[in-house]
Amino acid sequence: MPVAPIQPLQRLSLLEALVAQIEDWILSGALEPGAKLPSEESLSRQFGVSRPVVREALAQLRERGLLETVSGSGTFVKRPDADHLTEAVLRHLRVAAEGIEPIAKVYEARLAIESMTAYLAAERASEHDVAQIAGCLEAMRTAGRDERKWTAADLGFHVAVAEASHNPFLSTLLAPLVKVIEHTIAESFRRSRQAARAGLHAHELIYVAIGEHDPARAERAMRDHLADSERRLTAMRARRSRPSSARR
Predict the structure, then answer these.
(1) Residue 152 CB neighbour total at 10 angstroms
(2) Are 133 and 161 in contact (CB under 8 A)?
(3) Cα(242)–Cα(90) distance, rounded to whole angstroms?
(4) N or C: which end of the chain has fewer CB within 10 A?
(5) pTM exceeding the 0.70 threshold for the entire prediction
(6) Is there a single domain that holds both residue 89 and residue 132?
(7) By the 8 A CB rule, do 156 and 204 touch?
(8) What is the pLDDT of residue 13?
(9) C-beta atoms surrounding 15 within 10 Å
């Protein structure tokens, strides 16, 4: 177990707190794949919670693909697959992405990943990849005022570009980053038709550059799109956080 001191958990959300603590240890590498967890009784004493709480916490972590229990041997840390890892990172990002400054951090990460996915997609995209990207773009065009369809198509576009890079690590890293601001993209679409038109045009520029296999132009178009998107979302959140009297 990590050497960091363990404090008894507060009575508020004991189960969630215990799950979050062990999950954080696993994702941070403090508990490496293959490491054996202490017994339920030992965990109960260390955290100051009942054994049923420990048992349920371990069950949830098994469902998340982070632990496995071997009959007669104990419970061990499991290397999560891509889907479980995305879900775990998404849970943490959703907590971290509240407010304006964390949104900037999300966009910094997106810029680092997506400038490269756009560049590589323009180099490596097959006809099938380009068709997938085009399908998402068409779904954005035909979404009308349906924010759910627009948001799904918008996120799908970025994931399709990442997949066209043919680097599975980039796709895995990107998925939770775009998912964490899904509701914000939907709100932006709902509140501003101008933002939707600008977003559609930006996606068209990215698509054309990838289709024409122009890596530098694709990267530049993605950078321009993300900068504009961040600016609009930050302004929208700033307006929403002001008192109603100040918005009049």
Answers:
(1) 18
(2) yes
(3) 28
(4) C
(5) no
(6) yes
(7) no
(8) 75
(9) 15
Q: Name residues whose C-beta falls within 8 Å of residue 137's C-beta, 6 or more positions apart in sequence.
A: 153, 157, 203, 204, 207
Residues of the domain holding 96? 84-247
The span from the first CA to the last CA of the chain, in angstroms, equals: 55
Task: Verify that 75 and 91 share a domain, yes or no.
Answer: no
Tokens of 17: 């707190």
Report the distance separating Cα 205 and Cα 224, nearest Å: 10
Tokens of 33: 């794949």
User: Backbone dihedral region of 161: left (phi > 0), alpha (psi from -120 to 50 degrees) or beta?
Assistant: alpha
Distance CA(12)–CA(175), nearest Å, equals 31
Q: String of b and e for 54-93 (b: at least 16 CB within 10 Å)? A: beebbebbeebbbbeeeeeeebebbebeeeebbebbbbeb
Spacing of C-alpha 22 from chain mean position: 20
Tens digit of each residue's pLDDT (9 = 90 or more) over 12-28: 478 988 998 898 888 77
Q: Are residues 62 and 102 in the same domain?
A: no
Phi, psi angle pair for 220, to nearest 5°: -65, -40
226 backbone φψ class: left, alpha, beta (φ>0; ψ -120 to 50): alpha
- Residue 2 domain flag: no
In three-state secondary structure terms, 144 is coil
Tokens of 113: 């990943």
Quick one: tokens of 83? 């889907």
